[in-house]
Amino acid sequence: MTAGTGTETGILQTIARIREEVCALHAELTRYGLVVWTAGNVSARVPGTDLMVIKPSGVSYQELTPEQMIVTDLHGTPVRGTNVGGGGTVDWGNPPLSPSSDTAAHAYVYRHMPEVGGVVHTHSTYATAWAARGEAIPCVLTMMGDEFGGSIPVGPFALIGDDSIGHGIVETLKNSSSPAVLMQNHGPFTIGKDARSAVKAAVMCEEVARTVHISRQLGEPLPIDQGHIDSLYARYQNVYGQ
Ligand SMILES: [Zn+2]
């Protein structure tokens, strides 16, 4: 890279910032007990570009560093650098690691949901237990009304290897207010305006999955009227959120 243009500095700074953020957010997955071993992943769209940043495959959580976060295009292919204005190029130095095996699903979401800036996937225990039964989590808590605006839906069974997981996530979430989907027999995927919001949705998804499961052991949880759910959601998203 030749020293200099504002464009080069800008994209390098942006990518460094997103790498720091994505790396730090992985620590939240372990802090909240949402992942074991190397399972789970966080990604973020790089604002103003057709790029995303995601965790490498097979690196333990304690060893993750910002420099290991991999920059890919929106088809999940690692990209070393880009052309910038005036014929210059910039290289942000991808590590010699493969991106997460779930990268194609994240990339599909970014391609088809332009409003999404972050995606998270875990196999968190309670949410995945609902996914194993293929059962949506009913909206029986005011915090579910606040965060999800209704039940947390189930997406189709899909195998890794093509776009079927990504397609299942998008088809389920585009008709739902929920930022979380339980992919059947697999586990939760969550989205947000940025990676931090998607991590929050993953934490809240596990929390309500656990609480509603426990409530069920004692009887049938009471439903909340849709009108009340709608006003909880509107208040929390539009008023409380600012
Ligand atoms: Zn998975």
Automatic annotation (TrEMBL):
Record-linked Pfam families: Aldolase_II
Enzyme Commission code(s) on record: 5.1.3.4
Example GO molecular function: L-ribulose-phosphate 4-epimerase activity
Domain Class II aldolase/adducin N-terminal: 20-213
Gene3D superfamilies: Class II aldolase/adducin N-terminal domain (3.40.225.10)
Claim: DNA-binding is one of the keywords in the record: no
Catalysed reaction, written as an equation: L-ribulose 5-phosphate = D-xylulose 5-phosphate
Key words, A-Z: Isomerase, Metal-binding, Zinc
SMART domains cross-referenced by the UniProt entry: Aldolase_II
Cofactor(s) demanded: Zn(2+)
NCBIfam families, per database record: PRK06557.1
Entry similarity comment: Belongs to the aldolase class II family. AraD/FucA subfamily.
Protein name: L-ribulose-5-phosphate 4-epimerase
